[in-house]
């Protein structure tokens, strides 16, 4: 099975050796569990949902069975319009589904500095899209990581190798469920 980890610096493994990125750690964990998988790291540091939309078609040419879609953090950091972010994510989800891939949507939370209205509008995008497209939602990609200084790099934003391992721990059951569904369908 081919899994595409499609996202920004959180997926790419910013500041980490390649073998400690999200994709590399996820692939190792799945293989340790006896799964025959390949996880492609399609993370680009600094990417927004608009950037992701612009490059997604190329990444889908390799025909992934499952896409872990993790984008939105940079939209939030830059205070970009949540309606645009939603439209971009919606278009990416549609492309993935049309390419025959299942999708796990990884949610993000808006920074508090943009105010409550922005935060609510931003944070609602992920569960709304998951419901609309009947997708598996991992509510917050950085769950259990962001408030623990031992799990982030010195910048306070990006997970270190232990932080990435924590993310993999959290999302792994959802990935396994998706792989099981794919195996049953084939």
Layout of helices and strands:
Elements: E1 2-7, H1 9-12, H2 22-32, E2 38-43, H3 49-60, E3 66-70, H4 73-78, H5 82-98, E4 102-106, H6 116-133, E5 136-138, H7 161-185
Parallel strand pairs: 1-2, 1-3, 3-4, 4-5
Helix pairs in contact: 2-7, 3-5, 5-6
Structure description:
This protein is α/β, with parallel strands linked by helices. The chain has one domain: SGNH hydrolase (Rossmann fold, 3-Layer(aba) Sandwich). It has seven helices and five strands, in the order βααβαβααβαβα. The protein has helices at residues 9-12, 22-32, 49-60, 73-78, 82-98, 116-133, 161-185; strands at 2-7, 38-43, 66-70, 102-106, 136-138. Helix 6 (116-133) links the parallel strand 4 (102-106) and strand 5 (136-138). Helix 2 (22-32) crosses helix 7, helix 3 (49-60) packs parallel to helix 5 and helix 5 runs parallel beside helix 6. The longest helix is centred in the C-terminal third of the chain and has 25 residues, at 161-185. The mean pLDDT is 97.
């Amino acid at each position: 099975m081919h899994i595409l980890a499609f996202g920004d610096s959180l997926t790419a493994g910013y500041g980490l050796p390649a073998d400690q990125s999200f994709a590399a750690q996820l692939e190792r964990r799945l293989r340790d569990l006896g799964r025959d998988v390949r996880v492609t790291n399609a993370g680009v540091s600094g990417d927004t949902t608009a950037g992701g939309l612009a490059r997604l078609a190329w990444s889908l040419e390799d025909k992934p069975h499952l896409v872990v879609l993790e984008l939105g953090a940079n939209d939030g950091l830059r205070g970009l319009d949540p309606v645009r972010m939603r439209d971009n994510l919606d278009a990416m989800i549609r492309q993935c589904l049309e390419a025959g891939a299942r999708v796990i949507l990884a949610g993000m939370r808006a920074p508090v500095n943009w105010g409550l209205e922005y935060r609510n509008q931003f944070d609602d995008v992920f569960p709304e899209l998951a419901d609309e497209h009947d997708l598996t939602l991992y509510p917050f990609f950085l769950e259990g990581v962001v408030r623990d200084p031992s799990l982030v790099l010195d910048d306070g934003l990006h997970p270190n190798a232990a932080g990435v391992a924590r993310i993999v721990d959290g999302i792994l059951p959802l990935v396994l469920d998706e792989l099981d569904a794919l195996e049953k369908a084939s």
